[in-house]
């Protein structure tokens, strides 16, 4: 029903406007009597084979919602009704920022992809933490953190630490985002020396806490094998909990969308089916190179249950969806979970 009827209607309108409409629809509709319990009954799947224990946390199933969909932690309870095993909020920054100018979100239907240059638009880490304190569901929450656009890279660690302190009592794990292509010079922080120093500072502060939280690193799919080797070394040296592979790509290779349309859209990170293969390659490389020494959350181009299983077989411990959720609809987590049960993965 979603793909045949609802999606064609939604795709007639501006993507960011549809995103806000969907948010408001979920907020209003799930306030109706029994709406949440009915939705959970329809979309949630429970089975012992789905449960995972990863970096010290118990996940009811391995299918999560990636950062970017609920940046400001405004819809956690509602999204938890759709069967996700965990939800990642953010990317949040210490201070609110509007992000880049609109339009900044573009669909590529011929490729089942999206291009975005949102630019870490968010209301700030502190307000997100305040909303998380009011949540009612027990779904596991990841906090994806970044730096403000105006903060120079040499002071980036201060921004990540500020987000850490704002969120540390309200999230279950952290994700350090240095791989978005939409904040100027942010990806320079993926280089070995600055990234090592940034993660060491965060991890040192984390270990001072009474209850340290797992810290993960989100990386780009555009890294070379040599850079991926550096990532393995960095995880080992800093003692962080794992890696999320991968963020969006700056590549525009092998697209079905006309080049004129791609050129007109311009800069931004590409997600969805065009990154399926590359993200799986990165997962497999990291898993094999490290000997499975750390968990990997696989994300990038997961549309079908088969895509999900491929990521897990490549070495991912958990997976996340975002663009696939937009294209495939609200029952995506349920379909993946049922497929994993049938295939005992």
Q: How would you portray this structure in words?
A:
The strands form 3 sheets. An 8-stranded parallel β-barrel has the order 3-4-7-8-9-10-12-13, surrounded by 5 helices. A 3-stranded antiparallel sheet has the order 5-6-11. Strands 1-2 form a two-stranded antiparallel ribbon. It is built from 13 helices and 13 strands. The protein has a single domain (2-342), classed as Alpha-Beta Barrel (TIM Barrel), CATH 3.20.20. The mean pLDDT is 96. Strand 3 (63-65), helix 4 (76-80) and strand 4 form a beta-alpha-beta unit. The protein is globular. Helices cover 40% and strands 16% of the residues. Helix 5 packs parallel to helix 6 (156-167), helix 6 packs parallel to helix 7 (192-207) and helix 8 (225-238) crosses helix 10.
Task: Tell me briefly what this model is.
This protein has 345 residues and is an alpha/beta fold. The chain has helices at 2-10, 15-29, 35-43, 76-80, 125-133, 156-167, 192-207, 225-238, 259-265, 276-290, 305-314, 323-328, 332-342; strands spanning 52-54, 57-59, 63-65, 86-92, 105-108, 113-116, 140-145, 173-177, 215-219, 242-245, 269-272, 296-299, 318-321.
Q: Any key phrases for this structure?
A:
345 residues; alpha/beta; TIM Barrel; eight-stranded parallel beta barrel; three-stranded antiparallel beta sheet; membrane; EC 1.3.5.2; cell membrane; Aldolase_TIM; oxidoreductase
Set down the secondary structure blueprint.
Elements: H1 2-10, H2 15-29, H3 35-43, E1 52-54, E2 57-59, E3 63-65, H4 76-80, E4 86-92, E5 105-108, E6 113-116, H5 125-133, E7 140-145, H6 156-167, E8 173-177, H7 192-207, E9 215-219, H8 225-238, E10 242-245, H9 259-265, E11 269-272, H10 276-290, E12 296-299, H11 305-314, E13 318-321, H12 323-328, H13 332-342
Parallel strand pairs: 3-4, 3-13, 4-7, 7-8, 8-9, 9-10, 10-12, 12-13
Antiparallel strand pairs: 1-2, 5-6, 6-11
């Amino acid at each position: 029903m979603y793909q045949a009827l609802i999606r064609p209607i939604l795709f007639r309108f501006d993507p960011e406007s549809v995103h806000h409409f969907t948010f408001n629809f979920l907020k209003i509709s799930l306030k109706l009597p029994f709406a949440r319990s009915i939705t959970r009954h329809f979309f949630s799947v429970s089975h012992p084979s789905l449960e995972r224990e990863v970096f010290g946390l118990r996940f009811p199933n391995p299918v999560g919602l990636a950062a970017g969909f609920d940046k400001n932690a405004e819809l956690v309870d509602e999204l938890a009704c759709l069967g996700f095993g965990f939800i990642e909020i953010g990317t949040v920054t210490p201070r609110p920022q509007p992000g880049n100018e609109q339009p900044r979100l573009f669909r590529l239907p011929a490729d089942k992809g999206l291009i975005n240059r949102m630019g870490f638009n968010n209301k700030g880490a502190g307000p997100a933490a305040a909303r998380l304190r009011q949540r009612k569901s027990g779904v596991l929450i990841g906090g994806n953190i970044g730096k403000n656009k105006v903060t120079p890279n040499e002071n980036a660690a201060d921004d990540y630490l500020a987000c850490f302190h704002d969120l540390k009592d309200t999230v279950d794990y952290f994700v350090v985002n240095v791989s978005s292509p939409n904040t100027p010079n942010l990806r320079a922080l993926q280089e070995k020396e600055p990234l090592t120093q940034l993660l060491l500072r965060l991890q040192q502060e984390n270990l001072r806490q009474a209850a340290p939280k797992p810290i993960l690193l989100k990386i780009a799919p555009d890294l070379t094998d040599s850079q991926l080797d550096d990532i393995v070394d960095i995880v080992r040296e800093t003692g962080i909990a794992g890696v999320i592979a991968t963020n969006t790509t700056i590549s525009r290779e092998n697209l079905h969308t006309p080049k004129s349309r791609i050129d007109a859209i311009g800069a931004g990170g590409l997600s969805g089916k065009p990154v399926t293969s590359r993200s799986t390659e990165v997962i497999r490389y990291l898993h094999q190179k490290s000997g499975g020494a750390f968990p990997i959350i696989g994300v990038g181009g997961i549309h079908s249950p088969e895509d999900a299983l491929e990521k897990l077989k490549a070495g991912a411990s958990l997976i996340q969806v975002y663009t696939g959720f937009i294209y495939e609809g609200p029952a995506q987590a349920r379909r993946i979970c049922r497929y994993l049960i049938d295939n005992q993965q």
